[in-house]
Amino acid sequence: MFELLGIAPQALFGQLLLGLINGSFYAILSLGLAVIFGMLNVINFAHGALYMIGAFVAWMLLQYLGIGYWASLILSPIIVGLLGALIERTLLRRLYHLDHLYGLLLTFGLALIFEGLFRREFGSSGQPYTIPDLLTGGKNLGFMFLPIYRGWVIVASLIVCLATWFVIERTKLGSYLRAATENPTLVSAFGINVPRMILLTYAFGVGLAAFAGVLAAPIYQVSPLMGSNLIIVVFAVVVIGGMGSIIGSVVTGFGLGIIEGLTKVFYPEASTTVIFLVMAIVLLIRPAGLFGRTR
Fold this sequence. Notes:
This protein is mostly helical. It has a single domain (about 10-285), classed as ABC transporter involved in vitamin B12 uptake, BtuC (Orthogonal Bundle), CATH 1.10.3470. It is built from eleven helices and two strands; from the N terminus they run H-H-H-H-E-E-H-H-H-H-H-H-H. The chain has a two-stranded antiparallel ribbon. The protein is globular and about 60 Å long. The chain starts with 8 loop residues before the first helix and ends in a 10-residue tail after the last helix.
């Protein structure tokens, strides 16, 4: 069948794999954005910069302290999460009673500052990050060659996304978080520290971005521009899935990655715009997004 279409099966499955890898990053990053918007009503435009910082933290841990990939998967999200907690405590907390636009402008300004600082220090060219020995090489599946590290990225992102969804939607902690954003006064009356929960939510959301940055470091060059190149697409994913929808971010992230990969096979010229075309169509039919709730 593929031969009738003039497409080699290896090329098709190769692009599907690439689409799944891109979809993995779309899903984790849009999940972090959805958590922050759904719980805090903040449009976090600094998300791409924090993803970039997560990759750079992993690179610096390896370069300067000899701390490898596996430890960085834990340490980098914690370090970036602490940075996020500082941002929430000192800056974002002052804007919760204002229009969403103020939060967007603040986080956009922070993104420019972070990107400028890293460009000044490291330049625009990327820094290489080695794949850990355990994940080097690949496996011949017959119809395609699967690099082990890329398979790991897909599996790790699925585990993290589903675990996050489970915690927020199916546990007592998640119900506290949702209640704290919908009716903070009532939740405070039950003795729950709402400001602390909001602080931890923002730290967790940006920690997800840092985790994605560590996953991306061995695949892409660790560069100050890596976040700005991705954040617009990720915002499109969030809008298509539904602002604040956890499951919408996961399903839409992976789905759009596959659509993007297939477009590169059948109509390469549209591969850079297909996600935005899908966004336009979805918003025309369902303005709240595929999984969003109309208010």
